[in-house]
UniProtKB/TrEMBL annotation:
Keywords: Hydrolase, Membrane, Metalloprotease, Protease, Transmembrane, Transmembrane helix. The chain crosses the membrane at residues 7-26. It comes from the Bacteria. This is Metalloprotease. One of its GO terms (molecular function) is metallopeptidase activity.
Length: 175
């Protein structure tokens, strides 16, 4: 009887090891490695953190070429969606200087107003004003059909924000 309990225990241990080892290997080989490869090929950003869990993929990037980032970001989202298989995907950027974030927060109301009222042409003018007022080295915005990408730089500090363009029940200005 003692031998049977030991055999059952060892069988259970071997089964659990294979099951969880297989799941871990699958996550590593089929999700994490292709993502690391894709992100490694990006010219506009570097990977700072990647976490693949059972129900979530978390990616953190440091944007190095803000002019190229929107295109590569869209491709990254598509690649990640293909690999995610139902997992929640979260992509964040780590360009978050506290001083530049304060400039961003101070101008966020007028930026959001321009966005909500579909007055996208006001955004470059607004950023030019911020650049002059705060003596920034760079202040730029790019836009695609889903997001507005804002980049602020002063010295070695930089700030990058990805702002979703809302769809559906938006406020529009007529007149």
């Amino acid at each position: 009887m003692q031998l049977r309990k030991r055999a059952i225990g060892l069988s259970l241990l071997a089964t659990l090891t294979l099951l969880f080892g297989g799941w871990f290997l699958y996550q590593k080989m089929e999700v994490e490695t292709p993502l690391r490869t894709h992100i490694g090929q990006m010219k506009s950003a570097e990977l700072t953190h990647l976490d693949v869990s059972k129900d979530r993929i978390e990616i953190k990037l440091q944007v190095t070429r803000p002019d190229l980032f929107p295109q590569e970001y869209r491709r990254l989202l598509q690649e990640t969606a293909d690999l995610a298989r139902g997992k929640t995907v979260e992509v964040d950027v780590d360009n978050d200087s506290q001083d530049l974030e304060q400039i961003w927060m101070d101008g966020l109301f007028s930026f959001t107003e321009a966005l909500d009222l579909h007055q996208y042409s006001r955004i470059p003018q607004m950023l030019t004003e911020w650049k002059t007022a705060h003596r920034l080295d760079e202040a730029s915005a790019l836009m695609d059909d889903r997001n507005v990408y804002v980049y602020l730089k002063k010295g070695k500090d930089d700030f990058y924000a990805i702002i979703p363009r809302s769809a559906g029940n938006e406020v529009t200005m007529h007149g």
